[in-house]
Amino acid sequence: MAVTSKTAPAAVSRPSTTAEKPPNKYKQAFPQYAAVSPFFILFAIFGAFPVLFSIWISFHSWDGIGQMKWVGLEQYHYLLSDATFWKTIGNTLLIWVLSTVPMLLLALVIANALHNATRLRTFYRIAYFIPNVTSVVAITLVFGSIFSNNFGLLNAFLRSIGVGEVQWLTSPWGIKIAIATIVTWRWVGYNAIIYLAGLQAISADVYEAAKVDGASPRQTFWRITVPMMRPVILFTAVTSTIGGLQIFTESRVLFGDTSSIGGPGDAGLTIVSYLYQSAFIKNQFGYGAAVGWALFVLIVLFSIINWRLIGGNDDERLTRRAARRVERRIAAQNAKREAADVR
Q1: What is the pTM of this model?
Q2: What angle, rounded to 10 degrees, do the helices at 83-116 and 121-133 form?
Q3: CATH number of the domain that 160 lies in?
């Protein structure tokens, strides 16, 4: 019987169990995260943690060394009935109005003059911006000698013209005017440079069209420049509000050698000065934190007010303007037709 040879069946191919795994996206992105991690670590330590800790200690009574005592909302209840705190709000708002309103108006006028200047533009821009980069302590010391009651340059000038002396650093209004003048002198150049950048973004065709229509320089400034600068004005108003409600160094340096941190009668005691006094002089860190969060609420409130007054909806305003223009044109056409019919 013949023996037939049988060939072995071909091996069945099986799917490989050692398929390559997809790359780990976290491992790939690790170098990038490691590169930016120092910022987030520093922000968490020196930014986020102090903010969260200030919220926590505002609900405690703490002298900064001993054990914290939970008091709940008692700090905020006392804050609402604290006459000194409400006085600091009034002082801060008055100083803010006396400094911010003339500062922004003067900055807009200076920016318009710099925009139209033909000679020494760079010199004037640097000259107006120098006060902003000068030490605020040095500026306050100089203005302290200017507003001094006995030997101040301002009183010497007033005596020379026969007006008489003004007790700038002892009267309530004199103290507020002195602090507001320091703030205005320091920040007017900064805001003028911002306004100048906004003016340079306005197309020259708009001004040429205004000249063709016969608009005067005053009409061009108030009806073209100011409306088109509204976003920039909103920015400066909000930043000036934030800075104005946080005034501290000016009053602290002016009255640093006196018994009261806010000057005679606490006329220069601002909200931040009261926070500093409560936390670092009286060692009432919980109450100081409560004052700080009350200041935060005020800043948010006044920023929203500025946004509503200066900002608003551009589309709605443009629609109203267009509607008024159409109404004026229709009224003018009707007047012409009536005049023609009478003739």
Answers
A1: 0.78
A2: 160
A3: 1.10.3720.10
